[in-house]
Amino acid sequence: MTSYKLLKQDGQARRGQLKTAHGIIETPFFMPAATKGTGKYITTDDYKEIGLPALIANALLLSLRPGADLVMKAGGLHKFINYSGIMFTDCGGFQMSRGIFLNKTKNGLHFRCPFDQHKFIITPRIIMEIELALNSDVAMMLDDMSPYGASFEEAKLAMENTHRWGSESLEIHQELKEKLKSKQLLFGIVQGNFYPTLREESAKYINSLDFDGIAIGGVAIGEPKDKMYEAVESALPFITENKARYVMGVGSPLEIIELVARGIDCFDSVYPTKMARHGHIFTSKGELNIRQSRHIEDFTPLDEKCNCSTCKDYTKAYLYHLIRIDEPVFYRLVSIHNLFFINTLMKECRKAIEESRFEQFRKDIRNVYG
To answer: DSSP readout, 311-357?
Structure first.
């Protein structure tokens, strides 16, 4: 039985539900990155208060510290971090773009531990064991992500590794899932870089396997926006409608809406909180830079239409004061606001699809953030 149910379509935009071990999640939705089991300057209590339905953590990094065994002893990732919503875990393929990556072979990805410098390899079996030990609701297969600007040959090799590891991940996951009596879902990942023929080939292959959902990986890695949309559009026609569709690494209001318009169901990114920490605030009137001195005597909230705790309790003048004295609580307060804004955007997006007015909603967002 499929874990995804399509409820309504308005153009290509989809309204649905994803059934997981920790409940049903309404799509489309956004999840912030709690990479190491937490966000920066923000707690799981904040996530709950905002009403965020899901988080994503990084299985590779959690396996290094505190260790998957310790998380398992704590009763799984939900109990360990005190979060009762839906948890995704990423396999760590994105860490290929970070300094801890050494090299890759046909067997897997080789890294150096940032904590004690020991070398280790992540294979499909190892990452499936880790993700099942963490007991997330949705695990991601091991993939090979080629960087933006990679040659066709480099992208093809990464895609072939991804396909082989996808088949292995699925087989191993099914074996371990039965053994552990787990209800964990497993998503496949489409690669192919920014070559449309490779994206099509990858989407066809990953879709042919029995994954619970399909992610389009290797985008939002520094490429122009039109290249990202082209990569997604090259893959989407070959992903069947009964599987949840996920674009990894996207978190700006405009990009989310543009991808929902193309048929994407879920997103994750550090973008909203990273932008907040740099003073870039999402509002119903567009982006606001709270670091500007014009806010020194502005006793209004960040967004008068917003119901987040930051907007209810604090003014722009106070937040500007916090920046000037370099007070760390500033980062928490503005992160709460930006995440609340994105979560509200997703609610409004779902409602617009239900009411068959998504295209007008898309135009409204474009007018503000285009």
So the answer is: HHH--HHHHHHHHHTT-THHHHHHHHHHHHHHHHHHHHHHHHHHTT-
Global pTM?
A: 0.97
Report residue 249 as tokens.
């690494």
pLDDT in tens, 52-106: 999 999 999 999 999 999 999 999 999 999 999 999 999 977 787 788 999 999 9
Strand runs labelled E in 181-278: 185-190, 213-216, 244-248, 266-269
Rounded to a whole number of angstroms, the CA Rg of the chain reads: 20
**What single DSSP character describes residue 218?**
S
* Integer Cα distance of 186 and 181 in angstroms: 14
Looking at the chain, how many residues does it have? 370
- Enumerate the active-site residues: 90, 268
DSSP 8-state class, residue 176 = H
Domains and CATH numbers, the chain: 4-269 (3.20.20.105), 271-363 (no CATH)
Predicted pLDDT of residue 39? 95
190-223 pLDDT per residue, tens: 999 999 999 999 999 999 999 999 999 999 999 9
What is the rounded CA–CA span in Å between residue 335 and residue 329? 10
Q: How far apart are CA 88 and CA 140, in angstroms?
A: 8
